[in-house]
Amino acid sequence: MRFHKLTPCLLVIILAGCTDNVDRTETVDPAPAPTHAAPVTTPASAPDPAAVASDSVLAPDSVPAATSGLTAEFYVLVDPVDFPILAADAKPDFTKVSQGVNYDAVDDNFADTGLWTDFYVRWTGTITIAKEGKYTFFTESDDGSRLSIDGKQVVDNSGLHAMEEQFGEIELKAGEYPIKLELFQAAGGVGCKMSWQVEGAEKAIVPASVLKPK
Predict the structure, then answer these.
(1) Taking CA atoms, which of 19, 30, 208, 211 is between 20 and 30 Å from 4?
(2) 69 exposed, middle or buried (CB, 10 Å; 0-12, 13-18, 19+)?
(3) Considering the domain 81-213 in this protein, what is its CATH number?
(4) What is the gyration radius of the CA atoms in the chain, in angstroms?
(5) Strands, DSSP E only, in 38-174?
(6) pLDDT by residue (tens digit) across 8-44?
(7) What distance in Å separates the CA atoms of residue 76 and residue 64, rounded to the nearest whole number?
(8) What is the mean pLDDT of residues 173-183?
């Protein structure tokens, strides 16, 4: 093979042409590292209804029957003319829970017991006082009734009589107190109601919501 000698000028031209074969692919800068996304805030969960209910004051109508009212103990007697003196070990003929004491006078079946004559009943438990003040309590009964709170007699409505109301006053601080209402029934009609009134409020039947059976 014969090689021709290239002049310097021709060599420059050839080298210049070779630059057309250089890879002209553009260099792309790597994508910037992604920035951290803002943390996702999880909404606070809704309060547990049971927990809310446990901290709420229940309205009177929603208080369960098993935890409200007073324990009523009935004793069948023979011709009573006054409150009986019961032996320490005397057992009631039957017991029930009364949701408040609000019984109109009837000639039979007092308080769904089947009794209407010759008996004695005592309602016992506790009463909750929400606000300190002077309270007036009333008993209306046929025959005799009497009411004690915290061991103190507040109302004396004793004797043989038709439906008759008596009242008494007592100063009470906020808290829970033992309460006892008694009724004895001879012959004829029978009924019993227990009401209260605090300063600035209307007289009303003592609601079951503030009473707790023993």
Answers:
(1) 19
(2) buried
(3) 2.60.120.1560
(4) 45
(5) 70-76, 94-98, 102-106, 119-129, 133-142, 145-149, 152-157, 164-172
(6) 433 333 334 444 444 444 444 444 444 434 433 333 3
(7) 30
(8) 98
Nearest to 163 by CA among 137, 196, 185, 148: 185
137-172 burial by CB neighbour count: b if 16+ within 10 A, else e? bbbbbbbbbbbbbbeeebbebbeeeeeeebbbebeb
Tokens of residue 165, six digits? 């109301």
Alpha-carbon distance of 141 to 159, in angstroms, equals: 10
Task: Give me the sign of the Cα torsion angle 202, 203, 206, 208.
Answer: negative
> Cα 108 vs. chain centroid, distance in angstroms?
36
pLDDT tens for 5-15 read 444 433 333 33
- Residues 92 and 120: beta-carbon distance below 8 Å: no
Instruction: Count the Cβ atoms, other than its own, within 10 Å of residue 77.
Output: 16
Q: H/E element holding 52?
A: helix 49-55
Distances (CA, A) of 206 to 24, 28, 83, 112: 100, 88, 23, 20
